[in-house]
């Protein structure tokens, strides 16, 4: 017996040594040779819809500022061609929390256009535009108008964190207790009409002045799994269990179709802004439990995409692969929209390390999840937390400044060079074990150019051969690392590109 154990032990040790030797040889080969990215335009994946960010909270403050140059600069930094060139504007429809809730940060209780004094107990008043005052919330509307004026916005997602407080069970814009289903069932229709009246007014009076063909989506519910209630509630929010949420969506979709027919518009329903997409779980109610309930209603037959948030997954490859396999198996005809993410940490980290962390989230959402669009949470923030793209600082003397971190520049490597209508194509990296710390994604743009984004999260610079791009002889290179932001140069393409240490690079190849 002892000899048998020794023989088994010896075999195991030899196997370990062999594996270690093979891995060591592989690592040396990868480290000291030119690795390659092979582009294959015939292998096509998702069609991109764009990149965006949310208008929530700080817009109520910044828009009220009298400094016109400040506001124009902020919108140019986000939506202008010299800035991020975001094409998706996420507009927060407030629930009136400023009227009834004493949130520690009053900006997290958004203003509502509905005039509460016009409510006499009959919920049909929410369908009548005359009961709304659209001179309210002019601060947000002012910035919305300036963003539209950049000419780059192609999609608008009107989203709500909570129903209007007059429709909730406790008369607040958050639940009385954690995980309360706070929307009254008799108000499903009224809440639907509330959203449609507001969106239609903004479309007719703002959007159409610039481009009547801008895509309009309405997202009535945001992160329904979360508790959104109790004494520690800090912002507008409404929990929905799977059954009542599916029933509400069925009501909303019916109202939406009727409204579209009667008003000659083509508004779309966006569901369901899932707080995360973990399938093995830390959340109270699993993603798939909601999907199972949705399938029981007719509206689900018309659903072509599902929106979700990457909170909790962060850079994880594992969670993304589990979710991608689930969608491919059960819902192969439904695409994925990543509509909200931030790092959820205190402080404002300006380092390239934080930028690279965000870059990995974007890269992996696009390549593993197959997300058709990607939106950061707050477009404008006031500092102290890792939730903004642009940070607005007010000094005691009344002076204002707008600042950005490396995260801003990293996002621009995607948003500025991947056009709406671009198709993600195959980009196989020869270092399949990831020894080099390199990740990549490639896109065929509508103008026939190819965009390749390469993220090198290692301390070593890499020379990379780009294969499969015969006929492309010009390249525009954009680099961001610890020292430079969007450093751009153009040159004749010779087959190789360089990915400096701890950097993100975008290469636009043209013929």
What does this structure look like?
The chain is an alpha/beta fold. It folds into two domains: 34-46 and 424-510, Immunoglobulin-like; 51-420, Alpha-Beta Barrel (TIM Barrel), CATH 3.20.20. Helix content is 31%, strand content 24%. The chain has helices at 2-32, 59-62, 68-79, 97-100, 138-148, 188-210, 242-263, 287-294, 317-330, 352-369, 406-415, and strands at residues 35-47, 50-54, 88-93, 155-160, 215-219, 268-269, 305-309, 335-340, 371-381, 388-394, 400-404, 423-429, 438-444, 450-456, 462-467, 474-480, 487-492, 496-499, 503-510. Strand 12 and strand 13 (438-444) form a beta hairpin. Helix 3 (68-79) crosses helix 5, helix 6 (188-210) crosses helix 7 (242-263) and helix 10 (352-369) runs parallel beside helix 11 (406-415). The longest helix has 31 residues, at 2-32. It is globular. Residues 18-30 have low confidence and may be disordered.
């Amino acid at each position: 017996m002892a000899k048998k154990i020794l023989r088994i032990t010896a075999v195991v040790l030899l196997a370990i040594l062999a594996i270690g030797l093979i891995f060591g040889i592989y690592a040396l080969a990868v480290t000291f040779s030119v690795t390659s990215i092979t582009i294959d335009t015939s292998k096509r994946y998702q069609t991109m819809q764009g990149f965006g960010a949310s208008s929530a909270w700080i817009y109520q403050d910044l828009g009220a500022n009298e400094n016109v140059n400040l506001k124009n600069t902020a919108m140019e930094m986000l939506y202008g061609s010299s800035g991020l060139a975001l094409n998706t504007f996420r507009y927060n429809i407030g629930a009136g929390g400023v009227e009834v809730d004493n949130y520690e940060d009053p900006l997290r209780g958004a203003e509502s256009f509905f005039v509460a004094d016009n409510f006499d107990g009959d919920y049909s008043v929410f369908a009548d535009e005359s009961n709304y005052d659209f001179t309210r919330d002019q601060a947000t509307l002012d910035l919305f108008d300036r963003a539209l004026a950049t000419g780059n916005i192609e999609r608008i997602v009107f989203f709500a964190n909570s129903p209007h407080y007059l429709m909730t069970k406790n008369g607040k814009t958050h639940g009385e207790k954690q995980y309360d289903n706070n929307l009254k069932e008799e108000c499903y229709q009224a809440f639907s009409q509330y959203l449609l009246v507001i969106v239609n007014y903004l479309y007719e009076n703002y959007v159409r002045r610039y481009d009547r063909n801008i895509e309009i989506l309405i997202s009535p519910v945001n992160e329904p799994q979360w508790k959104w209630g109790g004494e520690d509630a800090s912002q507008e929010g409404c929990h929905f269990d799977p059954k009542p949420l599916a029933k509400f969506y069925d009501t909303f979709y019916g109202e939406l179709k009727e409204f579209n027919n009667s008003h000659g518009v083509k508004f779309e329903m966006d569901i369901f802004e899932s707080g995360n997409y973990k399938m093995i779980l830390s959340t109270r109610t699993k993603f798939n439990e909601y999907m199972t309930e949705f399938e029981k209603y007719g509206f689900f037959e018309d659903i072509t995409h599902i929106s979700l948030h990457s909170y909790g997954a962060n850079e994880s490859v594992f969670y993304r692969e589990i979710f991608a396999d689930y969608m491919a198996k059960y819902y192969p005809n439904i695409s994925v929209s990543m509509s909200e993410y931030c790092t959820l940490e205190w402080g404002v980290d300006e380092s390239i390390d934080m930028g690279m962390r965000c870059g990995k989230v974007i890269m992996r959402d696009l390549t593993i999840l197959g997300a058709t669009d990607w939106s950061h949470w707050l477009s404008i923030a006031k500092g102290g937390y890792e939730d903004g793209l642009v940070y607005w600082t007010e000094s005691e003397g009344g002076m204002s400044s707008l600042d950005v971190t490396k995260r801003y520049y990293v996002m621009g490597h995607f948003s500025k060079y991947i056009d709406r209508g671009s198709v993600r194509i195959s980009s196989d990296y020869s270092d399949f074990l990831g020894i080099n710390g390199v990740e990549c994604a490639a896109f065929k743009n509508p103008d026939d150019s190819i965009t390749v984004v390469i993220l090198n999260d290692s301390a070593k610079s890499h020379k990379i051969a780009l294969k499969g791009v015969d006929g492309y002889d010009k390249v525009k290179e954009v680099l961001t690392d610890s020292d430079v932001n969007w450093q751009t140069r153009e040159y004749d393409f010779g087959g190789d590109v360089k990915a400096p240490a701890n950097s993100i690079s975008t290469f636009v190849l043209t013929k």
